[in-house]
Predict the 3D structure of the following.
Amino acid sequence: MPELPEVETIARGLAKRVTGDVIESVWLGSKPQTLKSPAAEIAATLENKRVAGVRRVGKHLVVDLQDAGKAGSRRPKTARKGKAGVSAPSGQEAQWIVHLGMTGRMLVCEPGAEIAKHTHAIAKLASGRELRFVDPRRFGRLSVGHGFKAAGYEPLEVELDRFVGLFRRRKTPIKSALLNQKLLSGVGNIYADESLFRARIRPRRRAASLTKEDLQRLYLALQEVLREAIELGGSSISDYVSADGEEGFFQLQHRVYGREGEKCLVCKMPIKRVVIAGRGSHYCPTCQK
DNA sequence: CATGTTTCCTGACAGC
DNA sequence: TGCTGTCAGGAAACAT
């Protein structure tokens, strides 16, 4: 399941491979719930646009688009900021926003490559290649817009004081709070469990009950685990692969996630699994308090 | 408002 | 073999 490190890996791979290419035409499948914007609007926004870059925002992929226009190599200088009325809708700041959900993939395919089952969108590129969105479980979503912003803070950018403030007076379990995208954007089930283990905090602890020291450990643990995971190209669980089709390797570093009943790597006690906020939550009953 | 629960969806897997 | 049932989970919708 793509969380922050996986989406970061995918975004980097896509940026490397399709930046500068031009979307010539778009095909969209007929599954309506996959599209958050009307199909015609998505197609119109993407077609004849140059890919200016691909970034990760929270768990979203943002494909920045600019008018492909006539003059090929012209590079429109970015937003003169300041004065009002600058939100030029001429397209150069349009964005294609992709949420991969559980099983979504964005693949760069060579011309003529077989079309995988559950392909919901295909963007034909001027290079002849295709950018394809494939998502068996259909939890992924496509939309278009401008100036996309994540609802919460980026875990790798938020300052400690703000991080601590997010959890004050919150009665919900810390695990639920970590998964709440309006607080932090990008943390999913794997990295919530892994960071709580490293911070030695039980997932069911009420967020408000954590001391400043607890939260500082959690802050450092979360950033550490996310950075290490990005370094290893993310966790390949079930069907995640990067834009290059490469598997990540962080799953080999998981200390609690998916290890129910196995020995804790620190104290040798069996890892427990409980359900919190509807998600399997893994922890060591002795190491985590 | 805050928090908990249900829903969507298919593939993988266990058990018979 | 092939069927059935269960489980996985991000986030929106709905309920409390």
Summary: DSSP finds six helices and ten strands in chain A.
